[in-house]
């Protein structure tokens, strides 16, 4: 029996049943992007940061911007991607959280360029995202004002990075399943 009489669909139907783009090869990618976007929005609320953004390593180990909960987050990610330096890079390389209280006052030429390119972002907490035991990316929490990141911020960030990893593994499995259909 249909759970939704208007559409005739049941909650047991696959999520893309009845969607106009369900047959398109990129429909699964669009659904995954939407899932990541919603997750980053939720993580922003949970963490009480001004925003959250995700970077993942590509096939050559270079960090790439995946998404952000706001335009500022994407600016930060694209700046880090272009510069190939910053908190996400340090976090993945050292496999530990990296807390930057104020991008404008943090030392180093790379940080000066990040501060100019992502001017609205002042503080960043970068947490490595682990998939199968390897740091494959970073979850960046950011604030528009300088911030001293506390051990509580870091603990919440680490929990949310685990959640992000679980989401990514689930999306990869769903994409494989979608391709095999």
Automatic annotation (TrEMBL):
Pfam families in the cross-refs: GAF_2
Composition skew (Basic and acidic residues), residue ranges: 9-24
Residues covered by the GAF domain: 38-168
Gene3D superfamilies for the chain: 3.30.450.40
InterPro entries per UniProt: GAF, GAF-like_dom_sf
Superkingdom of the source species: Bacteria
Region (Disordered): 1-29
Protein name, UniProt field: GAF domain-containing protein
Naturally occurring in which organism (per UniProt): Actinomadura napierensis
High-level lineage: Bacteria, Bacillati, Actinomycetota, Actinomycetes, Streptosporangiales
């Amino acid at each position: 029996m249909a759970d939704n009489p208007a559409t005739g669909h049941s909650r047991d139907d696959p999520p893309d049943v009845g969607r106009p783009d369900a047959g398109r090869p990129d429909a699964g990618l669009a659904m995954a992007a939407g899932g990541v976007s919603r997750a980053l929005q939720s993580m922003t609320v949970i963490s009480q940061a001004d925003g959250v953004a995700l970077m993942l390593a590509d096939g050559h180990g270079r960090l790439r911007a995946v998404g952000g909960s706001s335009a500022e987050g994407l600016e930060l990610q694209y700046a880090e991607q272009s510069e190939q330096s910053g908190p996400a890079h340090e976090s993945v390389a050292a496999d530990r959280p990296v807390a930057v209280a104020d991008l404008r006052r943090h030392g180093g030429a790379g940080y000066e360029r990040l501060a100019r390119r992502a001017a609205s972002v002042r503080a960043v907490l970068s947490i490595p995202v682990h998939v199968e035991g390897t740091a494959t990316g970073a979850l960046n929490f950011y604030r528009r004002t300088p911030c001293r990141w506390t051990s509580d911020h870091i603990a919440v960030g680490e929990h949310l990075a685990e959640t992000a990893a679980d989401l990514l593994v689930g999306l990869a499995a769903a994409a494989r399943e979608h391709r095999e259909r």
